[in-house]
Design goal:
This protein is an alpha/beta fold and 332 residues long. It is 39% helix and 16% strand. Helix 1 links the parallel strand 1 and strand 2. Bound molecules: nicotinamide-adenine-dinucleotide.
Length: 332
C-alpha cells in the first residue's frame, strides 16, 4: 500500500480506531489531518495520538459544522469517515445527537465532498448493529437490515448516503460493517463503546467482570490492527467503490468464554454472570457472527490477530497507560 505524501483526513481521528489508523498512516509518510470534537462521553482522547502528535494536524471541530467541513475537505485525497456516536444505550436515552451525528452530518459531509472535492475517496465505518437480531448465522451482507436501536437506524442511513453518492455522483465510497473491535486506545472508562472496554478496566483494577444474561451469546471480535488493514485496503482498491463489506473473525466465541479467556490472559481476575439490565436487554441482538467471505474474496482481507493475542496486547497497553484512560478525570 502506498499512501506516502497523500493528504488524508480522518473524522473521529482522536478516537479508538481513528487514532490507530492515523499512527499507521504516519508510518507510511502520509499527510494526516484529524478532525474530532472531543465530546467527553465519546471515545476521543488526546493521549491516543501521543506517538505522532508532532507529525499530524489536529482540528478540534464537529462534523455537524457544515462550514468547517467545507474547508477541511478541500485538498484531501482520502477521507476515512469514522466520527460517530457509538453508544447504543445513549442513542435510546437521547436519540437526537445520534441522528445529527450519525445521519445528518454524514449527508452534509458528502455534500461538502460533492461541492468542493468530488475526487476524494471515502471509507465509512458502519456497524453490524444494523442487521439487528440475526435471522441466520453467520450473517452475510445480504442479511435483512432490521436495527434494534436508534443508533442502528442512523448508521444505516449514514452508510447508504455514502453508497448513494458513489452511485449517483461518482464520489468513490466504500463501507465496512465493523463487528466488535478492540485493542489499544479504545474507551475503557465505561461500557459506552464496548463491554470489552469496561471488562479490561475491571480486570486491571482487580474488580470482577460482569457478564450479562447467561453468557452464551456468541460474538466475533476484530483486533484493531486488522480493522486498520481493512480500512486501508478499501481506500486503495478501486474494486471497493460502491461496495459494502462485513468484517468478521474466524473464532466466534461466547461471552462467558471470552471473559474466561481475558482472565487467563491477564493472569488473574474473575467474572460473574448477572441478569441483563433492562435497558440493555431491550436492545440485545442475541447471537451474532459475520460471514466476511466477500471482502476476503474481493480484496484479500482476513484478520490476522487471534483473540488471545489481541487481548494480551490490549491489557499490556492499559496496564502501562491506565492513568490516561480513567484515573485522570476522577471517574474511578
Ligand atoms: N469499535 C467498534 O467496535 C465499532 C463497531 C462498529 C462500528 N464502529 C464505528 O467505527 C467508528 C469509530 O469508532 P470507534 O470505536 O473508534 O469509536 P470512538 O468513539 O473511539 O471514535 C469516534 C470518534 O468520533 C468523535 N466524534 C463523535 N462525534 C463527533 C462529532 N460530532 N464531530 C467530530 N468528532 C466526533 C469522537 O470524539 C471519537 O473520538 C464509529 O463510527 C463507529 O460507529 C465501531
Amino acid at each position: 500500500m502506498n499512501f506516502a505524501n497523500s493528504n488524508i483526513m480522518i473524522t473521529g481521528g482522536l478516537g479508538f480506531i481513528g487514532s490507530n489508523l492515523a499512527i499507521r498512516l504516519v508510518g507510511m509518510n502520509a499527510n494526516v489531518t484529524l478532525v474530532d470534537s472531543l465530546i467527553p462521553e465519546y471515545g476521543g482522547n488526546l493521549w491516543n495520538i501521543e506517538p505522532i502528535k508532532d507529525k499530524i494536524r489536529v482540528n478540534i471541530s464537529d462534523v455537524r459544522d457544515e462550514h468547517a467541513m467545507k474547508y477541511l475537505i478541500q485538498g484531501q485525497d482520502y477521507l476515512f469517515n469514522l466520527a460517530g456516536q457509538t453508544s447504543h444505550v445513549d442513542s435510546m436515552n437521547n436519540p437526537y445527537p445520534d441522528l445529527e451525528i450519525n445521519a445528518k452530518a454524514q449527508l452534509s459531509i458528502l455534500e461538502a465532498c460533492r461541492k468542493y472535492n468530488p475526487g476524494v475517496k471515502l471509507v465509512f465505518a458502519s456497524t453490524r448493529q444494523i442487521y439487528g437480531a440475526p435471522q441466520y448465522l453467520p450473517v452475510d451482507e445480504k442479511h435483512p437490515l432490521a436495527p434494534v436501536d436508534v443508533n442502528g437506524i442512523n448508521k444505516m442511513a449514514g452508510e447508504w448516503y455514502h453508497i448513494l453518492y458513489n452511485n449517483v455522483y461518482d464520489i468513490r465510497a466504500s463501507v465496512l460493517r465493523l463487528t466488535n473491535t478492540y485493542g489499544p486506545r479504545m474507551r475503557v472508562k465505561d461500557a459506552r463503546q464496548t463491554f470489552l472496554g469496561i471488562w479490561i478496566r475491571h480486570i486491571i483494577e482487580g474488580e470482577p467482570l460482569l457478564v450479562y444474561g447467561d453468557g452464551k451469546q456468541i460474538r466475533d471480535f476484530n483486533y484493531v490492527d486488522d480493522v486498520v488493514d481493512a480500512l486501508l485496503t478499501c481506500a486503495e482498491s478501486e474494486d471497493a467503490n460502491g461496495e459494502i463489506f462485513n468484517l468478521g473473525a474466524d473464532d466466534p466465541i461466547n461471552l462467558k468464554d471470552t471473559a474466561q479467556l481475558l482472565v487467563d490472559v491477564a493472569g488473574s481476575g474473575l467474572f460473574t454472570i448477572v441478569p441483563f439490565p433492562q435497558d440493555r436487554k431491550a436492545i440485545d441482538i442475541g447471537n451474532y457472527y459475520a460471514d466476511y467471505r466477500k471482502i476476503r474474496a474481493k480484496l484479500g482481507w482476513k484478520p490476522a490477530v487471534p483473540l488471545a493475542e489481541g487481548l494480551r496486547r490490549t491489557t499490556a497497553y492499559y496496564r502501562e497507560h491506565r492513568s490516561h484512560y480513567w484515573e485522570t478525570d476522577n471517574d474511578a
